[in-house]
Amino acid sequence: MVQTDKGEYDHKLVRIDRPILRIPTLAIHLDRQETFTFNKETQLFPIAGLVAAELNRTRDLVKPATPESSTASDTPSDDSFAPLKASTERHHPYIVELIANEAGVPATSVVDFEMVLYDTQEACIGGLNNELIFSARLDNLGMSYCSIQGLINSLSSPSALDKDRSIRLISLFDHEEIGSNTAQGADSNFLPAVIRRLSVIGSDREDQTAYEQALARSFLVSADMAHSVNPNYAAKYEPDHKPEMNKGTVIKVNANARYATNSPGIVLIQEVARRGQVPLQLFVVRNDSSCGSTIGPMLAAALGARTLDLGNAQLSMHSIRETGGVYDVDHGTKLFESFFEHFSELESKIFVD
After folding, report:
1. What is the pTM of this model?
2. What average pLDDT score do residues 36-52 get?
3. Cβ partners under 8 Å of residue 21, min gap 6
4. N or C, which end of the chain has less CB nearby within 10 Å?
5. CA 105, CA 281: separation in Å to the nearest integer?
């Protein structure tokens, strides 16, 4: 948040595209623990630089005040009173300078900020045949990209919507990994509110059940990356459910409703994939293994809409460097494109008692 010359406050999004911080682990020689454990409060501080280098940088910037230039008074004015210290006092001034430079404002204009650390290494293609993607945050930027590109591709024809009775919509949420219970998370009222407003477009606004009718005719694809079989830990997977990278998008099934997939949904997505010529795989976790979850069950419960969980297969989920399949990007994109193009037709052919 920055203060403008007019005394207003603007929200700005910035990205410092270079590595400025590093969280070092302790060398294994100094602590040969069998499990990797650490104290989040005392052992996860990032290192920003060396004290000597910072002193050299700021040495010429320090200008001590003189009695003649002092403007201190016994009674501070309303303008000088600050409920909180300035951001340059609460945080390292050089960090504030970096943020201010990216925002295009003086450091003194930065009132407050939220900063998230991320791996700055660019993604790259690897593998003997360039068939793998090595990247941070494939979970879940991978499926986010596929859904966006699939929606765009489904509208490439000027007549794409001429006979379509449905609204093609994707929704990308924050904070899935910390519970989604935020204003911009999937557990908020954001998506229901948007659908409620869309449901009355082109209909009688006095229809009190337009929203409920829209949900009954809707289908939600919860798209979150899936687990590929790891050859180093093959025993961790159910014998008949070992998805592989580049073999197609994975439908995720769980009897305890950790995923929202059911049989009618599988039928629908299978027909969608048939029309798009996209291979599919199935994944069921071992009965003696824990199972992750997605926003699918959460939104299915909140909306009452038919829901299916799927995603492209990857290795090392939640690692700072994950691995996915190059060809699965095309698989996921084509699957979404086919879903948007054929849903209205297919939805009317699937009946559930």
Report:
1. 0.86
2. 87
3. 46, 47, 48, 117
4. C
5. 51
